[in-house]
C-alpha cells in the first residue's frame, strides 16, 4: 500500500519541493448497494492543501457522479460506491489544479475568495506567493457547493480560543489534538528515563572541530577574490529573483541545485567534502542564505545523522550564523525527518543535543521552536510529531537552566 508523503504537485519530481501532503488512502466498507469508499486521511490531506475536507470529498462525488457524506465531528469522509485509491489520487491532482494551485505561478499557497458582483458570484484563488488573483472555472459543479459553504479563513499559528469549531466545514484550525502543553504528561516516568539517557549520551559526544580556519576557501588570493565577485553576482541575481521566500520550489533554483549536488557527490573524507560543499554554495551565491542550511540538512545527513553532525560541525558552524539560520536548520531537521526518515523521529532529542553540543543552536531558539507548531517546513502533523518527540530534550534544557540559576 502506498503511504507516506508526496509533493502536492505530483508532476514536480523534486524532493526539495516544500509543499507536501500525505498520500490519500481509501478503505472500502459495506457490500452490494451499500458499498462505499471511506477516505480515512481526508482531513489530513485537505489540511495540507488548506482546503476543507468537504471540498475535496464533494469534488470526488461530482467527478464520479457519486453521492458523498461527511461526518465532520467523527472525521469521516465517504464517497458512495467502490472507488480505486489511484483513481481518487488522480482526481485529487485535478482538484489541486482547478481549486488550489495559482493559475499564474502554480504555487499551492492560495486562498479561495468568493467575490460577489450583483447576483453573480465568482471564486478566486488568491495567491500568497505571487500576489495574483486567478479565477476558478465556475462551470464546475463544485463551485455551487463552495458558494453555499464558503471557506472560512484558517487562522495560522496560535489558535487558542479562536473558536475554530464554530466555523463548521473547515478542517484546518480547530484541531483537537493535544500538543505539547506541558500540562498533561502521563508518561513522566519514561520522560525522566529518556532525560537521563540523553545526559549520558551527551557526555560521550566529542565535539572536536576538525576544520581550521585556513582550510576554508581563502579570503585574499586572486582566485578567491574572483570567486567572491562571482558569488556576489550570484547572490545579487538571487535577490533580484526574490529568493527570500517561495522560490526554493523550483527544481532549477540554486538551492535545489546545491541539494542534488551534495547528494551526487559523496565523499568519505568529511573534511574535503565540507570544503567542497562550501565552495559549491559560494559558487551558487547562497553560502550566506539561511535556506542553504535547510537544504544542507536534507541532502547531507543519513540515518547516522547524530554522528554526522559532529563530523560536519565545522561546516555547520560556518553556515549557521544567525538566529534565522538556526531556525532554518531546525526546519531542515523537520523535513529530513518528515520527508525521508520518519523512523528517526524518536531520535530528535539526540539530534538536538548534538547541535547543542557544538554550539549551533541557542536555548531560546530551540525552546521557541519546540513549543510552536508550524507549517513552514512540513505539514502540521509531522511538525507536531517532531516537537512532541523533542520534549525530553527541551525538558533537559530547562532543568539544566534551573540548575544554573541555583548556582548563582
Ligand atoms: Zn501565484
UniProtKB/TrEMBL annotation:
Keywords: GTP-binding, Initiation factor, Nucleotide-binding, Protein biosynthesis. Residues 165-174 have a biased composition (Gly residues). It comes from the Eukaryota. InterPro entries: ARM-type_fold (IPR016024), IF2/IF5 (IPR045196), Transl_init_fac_IF2/IF5_dom (IPR002735), Transl_init_fac_IF2/IF5_N (IPR016189), Transl_init_fac_IF2/IF5_Zn-bd (IPR016190), W2_domain (IPR003307). The keyword GTP-binding applies. Residues 248-407 form the W2 domain. GO terms for cellular component: cytosol. Residues 153-192 are annotated as: Disordered. Pfam families: eIF-5_eIF-2B (PF01873), W2 (PF02020). Coiled coil: none annotated. One of its GO terms (biological process) is formation of cytoplasmic translation initiation complex. CDD domains: W2_eIF5. Belongs to the eIF-2-beta/eIF-5 family. This is W2 domain-containing protein. It comes from Pholiota conissans.
Amino acid at each position: 500500500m502506498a503511504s507516506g508523503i508526496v509533493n502536492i504537485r505530483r508532476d514536480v519530481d523534486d524532493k526539495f519541493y516544500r509543499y507536501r501532503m500525505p498520500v490519500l488512502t481509501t478503505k472500502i466498507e459495506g457490500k452490494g448497494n451499500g458499498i462505499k469508499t471511506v477516505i480515512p486521511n481526508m482531513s489530513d490531506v485537505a489540511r495540507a492543501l488548506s482546503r476543507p475536507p468537504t471540498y475535496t470529498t464533494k469534488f470526488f462525488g461530482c467527478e464520479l457522479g457519486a453521492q458523498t457524506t461527511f461526518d465532520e465531528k467523527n472525521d469521516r469522509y465517504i464517497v458512495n460506491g467502490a472507488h480505486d485509491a489511484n483513481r481518487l489520487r488522480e482526481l485529487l491532482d485535478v482538484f489541486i489544479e482547478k481549486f488550489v494551485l495559482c493559475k499564474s505561478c502554480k504555487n499551492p499557497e492560495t486562498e479561495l475568495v468568493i467575490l460577489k458582483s450583483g447576483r453573480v458570484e465568482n471564486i478566486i484563488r488568491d495567491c500568497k506567493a505571487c500576489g495574483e488573483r486567478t479565477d476558478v472555472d465556475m462551470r464546475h459543479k463544485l463551485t455551487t457547493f463552495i458558494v453555499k459553504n464558503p471557506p472560512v479563513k484558517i487562522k495560522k499559528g496560535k489558535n487558542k480560543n479562536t473558536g475554530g469549531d464554530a466555523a463548521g466545514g473547515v478542517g484546518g484550525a480547530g484541531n483537537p489534538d493535544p500538543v505539547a502543553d506541558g500540562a498533561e504528561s502521563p508518561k513522566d516516568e519514561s520522560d525522566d528515563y529518556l532525560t537521563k539517557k540523553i545526559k549520558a549520551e551527551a557526555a560521550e559526544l566529542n565535539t572536536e572541530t576538525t576544520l581550521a580556519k585556513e582550510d576554508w576557501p581563502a579570503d585574499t588570493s586572486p582566485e578567491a577574490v574572483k570567486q567572491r565577485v562571482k558569488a556576489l553576482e550570484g547572490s545579487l541575481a538571487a535577490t533580484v529573483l526574490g529568493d527570500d521566500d517561495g522560490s526554493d520550489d523550483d527544481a532549477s533554483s540554486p538551492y535545489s541545485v546545491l541539494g542534488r549536488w551534495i547528494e551526487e557527490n559523496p565523499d568519505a573524507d568529511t573534511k574535503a567534502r565540507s570544503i567542497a560543499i562550501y565552495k559549491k554554495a559560494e559558487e551558487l551565491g547562497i553560502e550566506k542564505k539561511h535556506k542553504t542550511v535547510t537544504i544542507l540538512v536534507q541532502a547531507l545527513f543519513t540515518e547516522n545523522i547524530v554522528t554526522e553532525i559532529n563530523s560536519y560541525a565545522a561546516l555547520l558552524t560556518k553556515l549557521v550564523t544567525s538566529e534565522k539560520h538556526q531556525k532554518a536548520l531546525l526546519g531542515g531537521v523537520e523535513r529530513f525527518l518528515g520527508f525521508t526518515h520518519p523512523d528517526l523521529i524518536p531520535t530528535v532529542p539526540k539530534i538536538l543535543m548534538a547541535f547543542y553540543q557544538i554550539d549551533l543552536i541557542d536555548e531560546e531558539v530551540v525552546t521557541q521552536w519546540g513549543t510552536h507548531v508550524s507549517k513552514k517546513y512540513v505539514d502540521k502533523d509531522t511538525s507536531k510529531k517532531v516537537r512532541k518527540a523533542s520534549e525530553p530534550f527541551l525538558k533537559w534544557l530547562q532543568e539544566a537552566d534551573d540548575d544554573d540559576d541555583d548556582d548563582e
